[in-house]
Amino acid sequence: MKNIITLLAISVFLTSCGKKTPVLPENLKVLNTQKVTLKKQIDSLSSKLKLVENKIAELDTTKRLAVVTILHPKKEEFKHFIEVQGTVKANKSVELHSEMGATITKIYVKEGQRVRKGQLLAQLDASVMNNNIAQLQTQVDLAKTTFERQERLWKQKIGSEIQYLQAKAQKEGLENNLNSLYSQANKMKLKAPFSGTVDEIFAKVGELANPQAPFLRILNLSKVYLETEITERFLADIKKGTEVDIAFPSINKSMTSKISQVGDFINPNNRSFKARIDINNKKGDIKANLLATVKINDFRANGIVIPSYIIQKDDKGDTFVYTLNKENNKQKAIKTKITIGKEFNNQSFVSEGLKPSDVIIDKGAKLVKNNEEVTVAP
């Protein structure tokens, strides 16, 4: 600007002197006098230029203002979710073990086969047990005959009471031993504890069944549930009946349900508690140990909801947004402090600071200052 003014003054001086290049005197005193005169002319022109610029600023309606966009806050229901991982568990899922150690002689089922409760699944070698039963059965028959005869004699007052009691004890003792052998022989048979599907058979015919090793696995997936672990800081917000959204990415399936049970034990290793969620599995497509993503609704309220990206923080740590204030045909950006309750999915619930009638500055909010005049983009 100073250079422009200088050029303007020189131009005026040249004009006043004619179009021809002026001839400057060689006298130093005269040159200094001319210099002083020119400076006075420059100062005078600068003052006039400043007055003109101020007048232009007053009259110019197209002065440059920050251009912003606006949005209106919504009053709606806000839901906050916490996201955890869950594992599918079957209500009826067991690995059967043989109760006795013996050679496997027969397996009656195949993997994937449906079985009913009580159905015979496999047979262990019970030949020795059967021989013992046959021998003991003979002794039981003899003891029973002896007792019956002794009982008839005792009723006729023939013989002593001790003979009658000994025969009775002999018979009952042998019968108990026989029942014990039958019970052990029954353990040589593996039967289904409930109706379901044979998922996997670990043993083979001819192997020695080991009570320590699983024989086969049987499942019933008609009733399954999700088990998940949740950090203890959410304990106060999660209760029986809390709403959940469940997604099974592996099978591209989702559903809604509710928490059916909240654990009472806090795991000291990771400070978490377990929650159980019963789920419907009529089609049987949800398998045991399938992983699921569980979103638990720990907060719900009706109020002002705004996009999270327009929220700012000042050097004091206070959260705020800029609202638009119209006054005297001017629109100004006003710094408005707010309190955020919860934030989820790029949306924030404002518990204090905003009303539904407020107008919030959206784009351009980070380029303006408090009380700065702005213009709203059409």
Q: What can you tell me about this protein's structure?
A:
This protein is of the alpha+beta class and 378 residues long. It folds into five domains: 58 residues, no CATH class; 89 residues, conserved putative lor/sdh protein from methanococcus maripaludis s2 fold, CATH 2.40.420.20; 86 residues, Elongation Factor Tu (Ef-tu), domain 3, CATH 2.40.30; 48 residues, no CATH class; 62 residues. Helices cover 27% and strands 38% of the residues. The chain contains four helices and 21 strands. Strands 3, 5, 8, 9, 10, 11, 12, 13, 14, 18 and 19 form an eleven-stranded antiparallel β-sheet that branches. A five-stranded mixed β-sheet has the order 1-21-17-16-15, with no helix packed on it. It has a three-stranded antiparallel β-sheet with strand order 4-6-7, with no helix packed on it. Helix 1 packs across helix 2. The longest helix has 32 residues. It is rod-shaped and about 170 Å long. The N terminus is likely disordered.
Biggest pleated sheet: 11 strands, antiparallel
Number of helices: 4
CATH topology of the largest domain: conserved putative lor/sdh protein from methanococcus maripaludis s2 fold
In terms of DSSP E residues, the strand content is 35-45%
Q: Give the name of the CATH architecture of the largest domain.
A: Beta Barrel
Helix content: 25-40%
Give the CATH class of the largest domain.
Answer: Mainly Beta
Span between termini: 35 Å
* Whole-number tally of structural domains: 5
Structural class based on helices, strands and sheet pairing: alpha+beta
Q: What is the residue-mean pLDDT, rounded to a whole number? A: 85
Radius of gyration: 48 Å
Strand element count: 21
Q: Spans of 5+ residues with little confidence (pLDDT < 50)?
A: 1-9
What best-fitting shape do the alpha-carbon axes yield? rod-shaped
The succession of helices and strands, N to C, reads HHEEEEEEHHEEEEEEEEEEEEEEE
